[in-house]
Amino acid sequence: MYHVSPNPSERAKQRSEIEAMPEWLRRPIGKASDISTVQQIIKQRQIHTICEEGRCPNRGECYAQKTATFLLMGPTCTRSCAFCQVDKGHAPMPLDPREPDQVAEAVQLLGLRYVVLTSVARDDLPDQGAGWFVATMTQIRRLSPEAQIEVLTADFWGGSALDLSLSLEERQRQRIATVVAAQPACYNHNVETVRRLQDRVRRGAKYDRSLRVLQAVKDLNPAIPTKSGLMLGHGESQEEVIEAMDDLRSVGCDRLTLGQYLRPSLEHLPVQKYWTPPEFDRLGEIARNLGFTQVQSGPLVRSSYHAGQTPLAHT
Fold this sequence. Notes:
Layout: H1 8-19, H2 32-44, E1 48-49, H3 50-53, H4 59-64, E2 69-72, E3 76-77, E4 87-88, H5 99-110, E5 114-119, H6 130-143, E6 148-152, H7 168-180, E7 186-188, H8 198-201, H9 207-220, E8 226-232, H10 238-250, E9 255-260, H11 277-290, E10 294-297
C-alpha cells in the first residue's frame, strides 16, 4: 500500500497528538538485540506478525520474551476498519504455499509453548481462510507437538463460496466448524467496540454477527475457551462497555481483553478519550464479577497480550 508523506501541517498535528498522549501510554521500545532476534527469524521466512503490521505497543516486551502473534494470509486485509493499521485492499496477494511451514519453523526456533495465530480478513477466498488456519496449526503441531495454539479469526462472513446452496449463516458456521474441529486451545474473535459504534469503527463487520461467531464455537465444542476484546477510546461510555461485557457473557465468552485505542495515523479515527489505569482496573473488576475466567484490562493491553497465562477460576 502506497502512503503519501504528510505535509508540514499534518506532521505538526500528528506530533501534537503524540505529545498529548498520557504518560501511562509511553513505554520503552525494548532491547534492540531482543527485537532483532525475532525480526530476523520472521523476515528470513517472509512471514508476517500483527506485532509489526499493527504497530503493537507491546512488541518490544513480547520480543524480549521471544514471542509473537503470527499474521496469516499476507499483509493486506479485504476489510477497511477505521481503527486498524494493517493495509487494506480488494485484491490481496495469492496465498503463499510455504507459509504454514515457515510459521511452524519460526515457532520451533523461538521455542514457543503458546502460539497465537491471527489473520487479515480474506473475503476473496472460498472458505475465507478457515482451512489455512488448520493447515498452519497442523504444521506447528508436527514440529512443536507440545505447543498450544490460540486462534484469532475474522467473522468468516460473506465472500465467495464453493457451495452456493448454503445460506450466508450456514457458510459462516461451516467455516467456524473447520477451525473448531482442529481444537485450538482458545478461540478468539473480537467485537472491538460497543454496539452503538460498530458501523463507524468496524466497516464490513456487525456486532451480532460477531456474537454469533462466539456462540457457534460454544455450540460446536463447549470445552474450547472463547475470548473477545474491546478497544476503548472511540467515545463509548462505561455503561456501554458493561453492556458489551454482558452480551459476551450471554454467548458464553470466557475471556476478555480491554485496551486503549491508539490512533495509528491521521488517516484513522481520532481518539475520543484516554481511559485512565484506575478506570481500566475498575472495568477489569466488573468483568471478573460477571464471570470471565481470564481478564486483561489496561491501557496497553491487546488481544494477544499475555495470552498464554493460565486463567484463574472465578470465585
